[in-house]
Amino acid sequence: MAQIYRIYVNDKRIIITSGLKKAYHPDCKKITEKKLYSVLAGMINGNDSANFVLLTASPDKIMEDLKKRLTYIEAGGGLVRNEQGQYLFIFRHGKWDLPKGKLEPGETPPEGSLREVEEECSITVKRITEPLTPTWHAYALNGNITLKQTFWYRMEAGDYRQMKPQLAEGITEVKWFSADELDEVRKNTYDLIREVIGDHLVEV
């Protein structure tokens, strides 16, 4: 099976994959490993507005090298489902998003993901049911290129009777959506979030 990583930069991405053409969209420009850093910096600085693909035999090694070269941080979040089969979303910075946040020192990804969901939405999580595919996001922070890996988990909601947005984190609304209402989310969210819900909104 082909390995594939998607590093999102705003609404564009760099795909690093061992797969063939079907692994990426035909509008992607091919790049080499040697050009990866300069292309990533150009995208962050607004100089490049295309999608890119790097075909390689060793995607894992390239990602490990990037983690060492860039400022690497870890975050965690959840795709939370309640007993009615609805999914939990937050509204932040004018877009629908999933609850998530940076891991604290010493936290494991499951611990941090659960904490972030409970803090941002004022709910309790009954349990984590399974890990989902992590996502990657690159951006500028304090003059450096930051590479963020977000660990995602499917979760079951516990008590959400006191549910409310964490205003201090810029969240203005917390809302449950049924599967047939998710077009509202898809029309106003990030490509990274579309990837998460597109890959994992499967009833279990």
From TrEMBL:
Its cofactor is Mg(2+). Keywords: Hydrolase. Residues 71-199 form the Nudix hydrolase domain. GO terms for molecular function: hydrolase activity. InterPro entries: Nudix_hydrolase, NUDIX_hydrolase-like_dom_sf, NUDIX_hydrolase_dom. Transmembrane segments: none annotated. PANTHER family: GDP-MANNOSE MANNOSYL HYDROLASE, MUTT_NUDIX FAMILY PROTEIN. This is ADP-ribose pyrophosphatase YjhB (NUDIX family). It comes from Anseongella ginsenosidimutans.
